[in-house]
Design goal:
three-stranded mixed β-sheet; 8 helices
Length: 264
């Protein structure tokens, strides 16, 4: 691995925060509001520079939209009289750059949409909801806890990272039993038709509740990240793929194991 990819290397070795994806989504959602707030609150030279920067971004966006709308433009700007000076080979297809730019932009947008649609297609698009009464059980131990009953015991299988540090028992709100913690999953490759046991790197998305994603609860339909380095998957650049997403397809608490399908 190159030396400058130390962040990716750390994430592949030790995983990310439990709420990494949720924080990224919220940061992206706040970006537009933050930009608007900055535009209103800045004064003086800083406001002029910020306004100039946003003006340039808007101009670039309008150019892209205009080029996308003119993608079906068929007129060609050929000269009326043939030129006596021959054009080099690399300039023969540049007689109308507007059409080429529009076609290139349209193709790029379509490919991005296709990649995004393929990225978010999962084997189980819908799952049955789980109530909090089924997920948690109130713990009434000790003098103070017995009166208030604010501790919760998770009754579903969970994933806990290796570097997890447990809080003091007095301040621990959610208890994840050791007997229901899983570290490996039986992952099936849909194209190769093989099933291998791979270590779990983290829980990316639990469709039931964002809280369950932070706690690492493994329910049916949960998207997890597994270590696929043993499969020998290589990218186009020649790098070995470390982590891939997979979706849990079974009820782990009933089967005693985690079965998942790799998202390729």
């Amino acid at each position: 691995m190159p030396q400058n990819e130390y962040i990716e290397r750390f994430q592949k070795q030790h995983g990310k925060r439990l709420d990494h994806d949720e924080r990224t989504r919220k940061r992206l959602a706040r970006s537009s509001h933050k930009a608007s707030e900055s535009a209103r609150s800045f004064t003086g030279l800083r406001a002029k520079l910020y306004a100039k920067k946003r003006h340039a971004e808007k101009i670039q966006m309008r150019k892209q939209i205009k080029a996308h709308e003119e993608k079906n433009l068929k007129t060609t700007s050929t000269p009326k009289e043939p030129s006596a000076t021959p054009l080099p080979q690399y300039l023969l297809d540049r007689h109308n750059p507007q059409i080429n730019n529009a076609k290139t932009l349209s193709t790029a947008i379509k490919s991005k949409r296709a990649e995004k649609a393929a990225k978010y297609t999962v084997p189980l698009p819908t799952v049955k909801g789980i109530s909090e009464e089924e997920m948690f059980r109130a713990v009434k131990t000790g003098k103070k806890t017995h009166k208030k009953a604010w501790k919760r015991l998770i009754t579903k299988p969970t994933f806990v990272p290796a570097n997890f540090t447990r809080r003091p028992v007095k301040y621990e709100r959610f208890i994840r039993p050791m007997g229901l913690r899983y570290k490996r999953a039986h992952v099936t490759h849909p194209e190769l038709k093989v099933t291998v046991q791979l270590p779990i790197l983290g829980v990316k998305k639990n469709p039931q509740n964002p809280l369950y994603t932070q706690l690492g609860v493994l329910t049916r339909g949960t998207v997890i990240e597994v270590n696929v380095s043993e499969l020998g998957i290589v990218t186009a650049g020649g790098k070995v793929v470390w982590g891939r997403w997979a979706q849990v397809t079974n009820n782990c608490e009933m089967d005693g194991c985690v079965n998942a399908v790799l998202l390729v």
